[in-house]
């Protein structure tokens, strides 16, 4: 009596031309998580160092500090990169959790649709705040940045 061969559980299910056409979306998202995690470490620790260690420390964090910082395009791009990477990194992590734990396809679809929608809203609003921030919108503003206008 011969025992039938059992496929390895890690072997691909699809065979033939269909198996060759599969995309590497999961591999790319896995690589993105590693790369964005490393970049986020640099961005966040740089952000904390500049905001908390340089100058007067925590006491100096106020509206005028942010206004002065965002008057420089370098810090706008720095904060924008931190916002986008953190949001996409977190969204990808939640997408993975939804794929792992949502058992019904319709539940998975709606949870991911809500996730993508909320991530889009946060990215759009955050980007608008960074690039349209006007510290001189208040005519009574006494900020140094506004006096030079």
From TrEMBL:
For this chain, one GO molecular function annotation is: metal ion binding
Transmembrane portions of the chain: 31-54, 74-92, 113-133
Instruction: List the Pfam families.
Output: Sdh_cyt
Keywords linked to the UniProt accession: Heme, Iron, Membrane, Metal-binding, Transmembrane, Transmembrane helix
What Gene Ontology cellular-component terms does the record carry? membrane
Q: Does the keyword Heme apply?
A: yes
Location in or out of the cell: Membrane
Q: What is its main location?
A: membrane
What name does the UniProt record give this protein? Succinate dehydrogenase hydrophobic membrane anchor subunit
Organism this protein belongs to: Nocardioides mesophilus
């Amino acid at each position: 009596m011969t025992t039938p061969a059992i496929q390895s559980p890690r072997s691909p299910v699809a065979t033939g031309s269909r198996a060759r056409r599969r995309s590497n979306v999961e591999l790319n998202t896995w690589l993105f998580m590693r790369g964005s995690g490393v970049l986020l470490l640099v961005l966040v620790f740089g952000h904390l160092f500049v905001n908390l260690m340089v100058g007067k420390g925590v006491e100096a964090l106020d509206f005028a500090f942010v206004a002065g910082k965002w008057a420089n395009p370098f810090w706008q791009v720095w904060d924008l990169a931190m916002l986008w990477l953190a949001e996409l990194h977190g969204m990808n992590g939640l997408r993975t959790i939804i794929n792992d734990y949502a058992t019904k396809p319709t539940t998975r679809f709606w949870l991911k649709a809500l996730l993508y929608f909320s991530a889009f809203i946060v990215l759009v609003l955050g980007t608008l705040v960074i690039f349209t921030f006007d510290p001189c919108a208040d005519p009574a503003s006494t900020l140094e940045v506004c006096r030079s206008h």
